[in-house]
Amino acid sequence: MISINKMRSHMYDVVGAIHEVHGELGPGLNESCYQEGFEMELTEEGIPFLRELSFYPKYHGRPMSTSFRIDFLCKNEIIVECKAVSELIPVHRAQLFNYMRLLKKPCGILVNFAPKFATIERYLFDKEEGNIMGMDGSVIQKW
Fold first, then answer.
1. CA-to-CA distance for 23 and 4, rounded, in angstroms?
2. Quick one: pLDDT band at residue 4, thresholds 50, 70, 90?
3. What is the DSSP letter of 86?
4. Which residues face 79 on adjacent strands?
5. pLDDT per position as a tens digit, 102-124
6. Residue 65 DSSP symbol
7. Residue 73: is it exposed, middle or buried by C-beta count within 10 angstroms (0-12/13-18/19+)?
8. Prediction pTM value
9. Which of 15, 60, 77, 109 is at 20 to 30 A from 115, Cα to Cα?
């Protein structure tokens, strides 16, 4: 079973970087602007990351030619998907959940920079159980 408190602590500085970016840039800009600011903030804070990481899902153990690209992979375990939309919708969450499951990464953050106050949703992936969970431990998605 995944430790919620350990993962919450693991994501703390990444969430702090998100708040810094939104606090300086404010609402209403486009997604690429926030992504660039987030990249700069992660670099300044010394948080290891990869930006626009491409990967190929597998079918029957063989890589497919279709590729996906995640916005950020922080600390080799935290997938961060950035949005700048009027509101987050289920397809945004499904995108993050699938990335977490396919890459078997334990932490995911979905952030919407567009509103006056940034919306930050944090999720966990329990590889053993195959569940996506909220930070309260509730199961959101089962595979």
1. 27
2. confident
3. S
4. 73, 108
5. 999 999 999 999 999 999 999 99
6. S
7. buried
8. 0.94
9. 77
Question: Which runs of E-coded beta strand occur in 19-143?
Answer: 49-55, 58-59, 62-63, 68-74, 78-83, 107-112, 119-126, 131-134, 139-142
The one-letter amino acid code at 106 reads P
Domains held by the chain: number? 1
47: which 2 tokens?
Answer: 């948080």
CA 123 to chain centre: 8
- At residue 135, φ and ψ (nearest 5 deg) are -70, -10
Residue 44: CATH number of its domain: 3.40.1350
| Chain length of the chain | 143
Question: In terms of DSSP H, where are the helices of 46-89?
Answer: none
- Pairing between strand 68-74 and 78-83? antiparallel
User: Tokens 């053993």 correspond to what residue?
Assistant: 128
Tell me the C-alpha distance between 7 and 73, whole Å. 15
Residue 41: what residue type? E
Helices (H) and strands (E) in the chain, counts: 3, 9
